[in-house]
Structures are given as structure tokens and as C-alpha cells.
Amino acid sequence: MSTVFIALQANEETRPIIEAIEIDNPLAVVNRQPAMVKIDAPNRLVIRKETIEEQIGREFDLQELHINLITLGGNVTEDDDSLTLSWAE
Amino acid sequence: MDMKVAKKKLGLKEKYRLMTRDLGWEPTYRAKDEVFPYVNYEGIKVHDWDKWEDPFRLTMDSYWKYQAEKERKFYAIIDAHAQNNGHLNITDARYLSALKIFLQAISPGEYAAHKGFARVGREFPGVGTQVACQMQAIDEIRHAQTQIHALSNYNKYYDGFHAFADARDRIWYTSVARSFFDDAMSAGPFEFMIAIGFSFEYVLTNLLFVPFMSGAAYNGDMATVTFGFSAQSDEARHMTLGLECIKFMLEQDPDNLPIVQGWLDKWFWRGFRVLGLVSTMMDYMLPKRVMSWREAWEIYGVENGGALFKDLARYGIRPPKGWDDAEKAIDHMSHQFMLGLYQWSFGTSFHSWIPSDEDMDWLSAKYPTTFDKYYRPRWDHIRKLAAAGTPFKNFGLAKLCQTCQLPVVFTEPDDATMSCHRETEYKGEKYHFCSDGCQHIFDNEPEKYVQAWLPMPSLFQELDGDIGAWMNWVSLRDGEDNGDYSGSRDQRNFDQWRGMATSNT
């Protein structure tokens, strides 16, 4: 097992995104550090557009993530509906 | 009333195809080899450039939109910083030493990376690659500019910021970062991608930008947090490009594996040495610390680097050759660097200091196996000398490693009481090294590294060893920019202004 992670700036825009990630990834662990939030998950983490839209109540383009993204670890796969981070099992 | 019908938006994949692949063409006036002359000599075999895909599928139109948004956020905070006495809101002016090192050594590295990506974007034949490199070239110049701009606010009030460009070109410790980027920029396009895109960005920049910038937030420095995180938001894309690049090379041809592995070995060690200075910034220069260098290494080196190399094992990649030596150095390096910076502080355009009792207790808690045994006794001795009015100053010049250009201040990987030193003789000249890693790099490409410009020998060659003339040449103001923090003008000003900011007398 390897850990994938994503780190986002801690601000109003990312709060619902982090909540969406928690909903979609029950195994994710959220670490709150000064000015940033780092989310770790075993092998795989998925970020879904639909879940984020439910949290923020408006349309969301997954590429908006770039604005508040700090760093990530894992192979990235992105399409219109989701962004997945994974390590080969 | 006319109904506005929303045009169906292009899907991400379709848009990416149209905005990258569709912009390329096959040259007809000239042969492809003539248009892309540098892409073969390194020995990397590529059969299908279209296999290179940016996993984020970012296209130029979206790129400008999101970058503009990042800039607006950045300048909102920079303005607030300037309007709200941001220079007084930091925890302690000692913290500024970390920013001075950043500005003198790292921001110019961003500019060098800009030049490098502009070049390789031209040299690679694949359109997806060209677009990604073009974005990264623009990102890197943005980083250099926003960092210089953010830190210019501190230059109005504090010493050591005023001549960062001269420091970048001439002062001794910045040649460590400069030689790293010069080495990468004078390599072929594929090696450049491994050097900067993969080793530096993917394996190592997390250690610089993430815990250190979080530390800046902890120390009240919103300007630095902002440029740090704004830069790092591009970094996630750069890391992904670096990882994509290495996977692309390995998937294109099995003959690429040994070449790629050799570059990984080289550039991991080069990067580890350059970023070593960050260990001291984290352990010693942040008055309020988020985590130790050791803790940061556990997360971003051991855990994340380990996961990465486990993932790449499917291609036959093994962890870089210097990995074990790096692990052995983690509990020592920040202390060894700080002792070096303190004893040569006459020649640094930032301040260093003897750690307080509280600092030392924190260090022994974070480094239980090394600090009390090897480093506290040395600081105690240095403190006694300072109290007796005979501070420990080393006016000799450091012997530099021919490869990484750091002073030879490290110890043997398996014996922290033995200074580590390697030597190679090449064409009748002796060359010195700080480690096996740096010696191996030299031995592989001696004709490259014998040409290195080393600041200490140059001081004798060009200025006859005249330290005063050297200080003028590097724009170091003796007694203002350099020396101990205790008693410095930065310390006096900070204390006085902070007093004025919190009272009316």
C-alpha cells in the first residue's frame, strides 16, 4: 500500500471541496496544517465534480482546482467528471 | 424573447486534442531532423510523440484564465501586506534570513527554469510536450517575478535584500543553486526534463514549498505564503509533467531505461544537495516551527518518494543511488549547515546566530539520536566563546565540492565524527568532493565539471584574496548585511518599530 495525497490552500473556496473529497473517499485522512489542508488516502483518491457541485450549489469546472492546489502525489487521471490520483497496486 | 441556448461545451479530451495536436504540423520545407536537431544525441528513443499526454489536459485558454485568477489573489494579499505594516507582523526578524536565502538562491533558479523550459519547449517535436513546456516556461518567470515583487516590500525596511542579483551571480553560497540550474540547462532536452521536471519538481520541491511555506504562515509572513502557494499551485502541474515525462521515456523504448536511471541517480543527488539548505531554514531559521526537516523528509521523502519509486518499479526503475546516503544525512545536515553558516557569517548576505536554550531543547526533541550527542556540545562551546568576547569566526575560505559547490562540511554517512572528503585526479589536477554521490557525478562527466566556476578559487584568481574588494564586488555591506543577528541593524530596527507599532510613544 502507498499513500496518495492532495494538498489545498485552506480557504473558503476549498472548504466544500474538502468536504466533497471526504464524502467520496471514506478512507481519506484530512490533516489540517497552517494555511493548508493535506488529504492522504491509501493507493487511490477520487475527486468528483458532481459531489463538489452538490456541496457548493453551483456548476464547478474541475480545472478550477488548479487555483487552490498546493501539491499532490500519485499518477493523475482526469476527465470531465473526476480527477483520480493513484499508485500502481 | 430570444432564448439563449447554451452552446454545448467541448469535452475535456476533445478540447485538448483540438488545442494541442491540432495545432501541430509536419514540416515540408525542411527535414524534421533539421527542425529538431537536439532530440536524438542523448540516445533516448521515441517512436510516437502523440503518446505524450498532459493528464490535466490543460489548454492555453484555460491556462490564462486560471493564472489570471491566481495573480489577482496574489496581488490582493501583497497589497494588504504593504498597507498593513506586513514587515512588522512577522514573529521575529531572524526569520528574514530564510527569505534572504530564498531570494538570492531560489528565485533566480525559477528564472533559470523559465529559460530552460522555453528552450526545451522548442527542442521537443511533440505538440503536447511543447504546449506543456510553454506553460511551464511562463509559470517559472511568473514565480521569479512574484517572489521578487513580494520580497521587495521587505527590502524597504531590512538589510540583505538589496543586491540579490549580484548575490546570485557572485556570492559563494548561491553558486550551489546556480551551478545546479546551469548544469541542467547545459544538458540535452531529455536530461533537462529529468533534472528539473522530475527530480527537482516531483521528488524534492515539496520539501521546499510545502512545509516551509506553511512555516511562513505560522510566522506571520502572508507575503511569502502567498507567493509560495501561488507558485506551488503551478508546481502540481509541473510535477505531473515530470512524472509523465519519465513514464513516456520508459514506455517508448526499453533501451531508454539505463539512460533514465543514470540521470535519476545524478539529479536526485544534485537536488538533495541544493535543497539541503532548506533543512537549516526549517530547523533553525523559522522562529515558530511547523515541523522539523526530519519530519518533512518522512512525509515527502520517505513516504511520497518511496511510493513513487515503488510505482516506477514496474518499468525497472530502482530508487536513486544516493537514497540511502540521503537518509543517513537527514539527522545531521541542518546542524552541519548552520554551524557552517555561523562560522562564515562574515561572508553571508544574511544573519546567523547561536540557537537559544529553547531552540536547542526543540532540536534535541526532534533529533533525539544526534543533537545532544554531536551538536549541542559544539553550540555550547561556541556560546562560551561568544560570551568571552572571542566569538568563533572562521576567516579561512571553505574548500568547495567541485560538483555541488557546497563547502565540504558533511560527515561520513556511517560516522558522524569523521569529516567526509573525496578526491579525484583528472589530467594532472586534483578535484575535491563532499560525498560519494558528487564524486560519481564528476567521474561520469569530468569534462563538464572541470569547467565549473568556483567562487573560492576565483576570489584568489580575480581579486588576489582581498576580502574587502570581494565584499564590494558582491555588494555585501560589511557590518550591515552580514554577521551575527544579535546586535544587527535588522534586530535593532525590528524591535524599535515593533515597539512603535504597538504603543503611542
Automatic annotation (TrEMBL), chain A:
A molecular function GO annotation: monooxygenase activity
Source taxon at top rank: Bacteria
InterPro entries: MOase_MmoB_DmpM (IPR003454), mOase_MmoB_DmpM_sf (IPR036889)
Keyword Transmembrane: no
Keyword Oxidoreductase part of the UniProt annotation: yes
Keywords annotated in UniProt: Monooxygenase, Oxidoreductase
UniProt record similarity statement: Belongs to the TmoD/XamoD family.
Name the UniProt record assigns to this protein: Monooxygenase
UniProtKB/TrEMBL annotation, chain B:
Tagged with keyword Oxidoreductase: yes
GO molecular function: monooxygenase activity
Entry keywords, A to Z: Monooxygenase, Oxidoreductase
Domain (YHS): residue spans on this chain: 414-453
Gene3D superfamilies: Ribonucleotide Reductase, subunit A
Entry annotated with the keyword Oxidoreductase: yes
Name of this chain's protein: Phenol 2-monooxygenase P3 subunit
Source lineage: Bacteria, Pseudomonadati, Pseudomonadota, Betaproteobacteria, Rhodocyclales
